[in-house]
UniProtKB/TrEMBL annotation:
Pfam families: Acyl-CoA_dh_1, Acyl-CoA_dh_N. It comes from the Bacteria. Its cofactor is FAD. The keyword Oxidoreductase applies. It comes from Streptomyces massasporeus. It is an enzyme of class 1 (oxidoreductase). The lineage of its organism: Bacteria, Bacillati, Actinomycetota, Actinomycetes, Kitasatosporales. Its EC number is 1.-.-.-. GO terms for molecular function: oxidoreductase activity. InterPro entries: Acyl-CoA_Oxase/DH_mid-dom_sf, AcylCo_DH-like_C, AcylCo_DH/oxidase_C, AcylCoA_DH/ox_N, AcylCoA_DH/ox_N_sf, AcylCoA_DH/oxidase_NM_dom_sf. This is Acyl-CoA dehydrogenase family protein. The keyword Oxidoreductase applies. Gene3D superfamilies: Acyl-CoA dehydrogenase/oxidase, N-terminal domain, Butyryl-CoA Dehydrogenase, subunit A, domain 2, Butyryl-CoA Dehydrogenase, subunit A, domain 3.
Length: 416
């Protein structure tokens, strides 16, 4: 493995950091999250038109840049530094890969170019209390019990004249209140033969009600969807099982989340080091005290270790995607088969380490900023809430690690 970044990857990071540094300061961030959508449309347009960020990991055939999960993770690291208020994660990380992997030729041609241009934002809606379960980050669910299992609850899909209709409710949908396209996981076939399929729903569809939820982390807005006989279009065809596709998506999504958390942790640590070098106590900078140095050094080591893990997870996800496509793209889409992975649980482990690092760096930032750090107005709290919010959505950390240990058979007794 060559751990060095290419010139193109370095340019992506440098350009994005420079742009976000000018356009996404603390004041701009707070102004954006207080809007009904929770995003800055002007910033999103700039990222799409100047950098092609929404289509970074999409093929050039569909108007994308043609990069891999590695470049997308590096972009997420930079957006994580500023907690940039954009629909990048919901659109480019969670939804676009499923459209590319499972959609028909017509669906790809009609949707992916619009996503790549930034004109179409999208959100993945999976019923249940934890997105991590659907993405197989905290365990495997071969029957889709997280979506209601075909019983009451979740979202049910029924055939209707001219297509399908969806009925049910989904909570905690990232950007679900504002996305123009929804990709909804729903059960069909009744309880005895229930299975999970993915459906496309327009944001202005008849019978769809969307409400923005009050979330711990306002920089990652969530919506609640209520579907009452909403017309929907099946993604792909009925031979495609959504569960394996969601599980495959999980590792790449976790790698991008880990990179995003590492970017946030690095930024809040930088701000803390800068502050303790200026704040004086007993006639000398606070940062000159040995106890403070030790605390910051420990946090720095944890952040750097998490960064290495996130980079490896992104590389492993990109390598696995390439290997899987080389085995048989059609077989993968219909049966869920996958090529042998080099880093089967790398994403989940990297995410656990990155969330720990972000929580540690943000907590140190709050404490070492003194009295001002404990006020809600200080930006250190935004980073601490991001760590806590991500763990609620995609964790908890101990379950991420436990699932990785189970997948690696780490605690199984050796045979005779």
């Amino acid at each position: 493995m060559d751990a060095r970044f290419t010139d193109e990857q370095d340019e992506i990071r440098r350009t994005l950091r420079e742009l976000l540094g000018k356009r996404c300061g603390p004041e701009e961030l707070r102004a954006a999250v207080d809007t009904p959508t929770g995003h800055d449309p002007a910033l999103w347009t700039t990222l799409a038109e100047q950098l092609g960020l929404p289509g970074l990991a999409l093929p050039e055939t569909y108007g994308g840049v043609g990069c891999t999960a590695t470049e997308l993770a590096l972009a997420c690291e930079e957006t994580g530094r500023t907690l940039a208020p954009t629909p990048l994660f919901a659109t480019a990380v969670l939804t676009a890969p499923l459209l590319l992997a499972l959609g028909t030729d017509a669906q790809r041609a009609g949707l992916l170019p619009r996503i790549a241009s930034g004109a179409l934002t999208a959100a993945l809606a999976v019923p249940g209390p934890a997105l991590a379960t659907a993405l197989a980050l905290t365990g495997h669910d071969r029957h889709g019990a997280w979506a209601g299992g075909g019983r009451a609850g979740g979202v049910q899909a029924r055939r209707a004249e001219g297509g399908w209709q969806l009925y049910g409710q989904v909570d905690q949908v990232l950007d679900g209140h504002s996305a123009r396209l929804l990709l909804v996981a729903a059960h069909t076939g009744g309880f005895a033969r229930s299975r999970v399929l993915l459906f496309l729903v327009r944001g202005d569809a008849t019978g769809l009600t969307r409400v923005r939820q009050t979330a711990l982390d306002a920089t990652r807005p969530q919506g609640r969807l209520q579907l009452r006989h909403v017309p929907a279009e099946l993604l792909g065809d009925e031979t495609v099982d959504a569960l394996p596709a969601l599980a495959r998506l999980g590792d790449a999504a976790a790698a991008c989340l880990a990179a995003e958390a590492v970017g946030a942790a690095g930024r809040v640590l930088e701000r803390t080091v800068e502050y303790v070098g200026q704040r004086e106590q007993f006639g000398r900078p606070v940062g000159s005290f040995q106890a403070v140095k030790h605390r910051l050094a420990d946090a720095y080591v944890q952040v750097q270790a998490a960064r290495s893990a996130a980079y490896y997870a992104a590389w492993a996800a990109a390598a696995e995607a390439t290997a899987t496509a080389a085995v048989s793209p059609s077989a993968t889409a219909t049966t869920g088969a996958r090529a042998p992975a080099r880093g089967e649980t790398a994403g989940g482990l990297a995410l656990a380490q990155a969330l720990d690092a972000l929580r540690r760096a943000a907590a140190e930032g709050i404490q070492l900023h003194g009295g001002i750090g404990f006020t809600w107005e200080h930006e250190a709290h935004l980073y601490f809430k991001r760590a806590a919010g991500d763990e609620l959505l995609f964790g908890p950390v101990h379950r991420l690690r436990a699932h990785a240990a189970d997948a690696a058979h780490a605690f199984e007794e050796a045979g005779p």
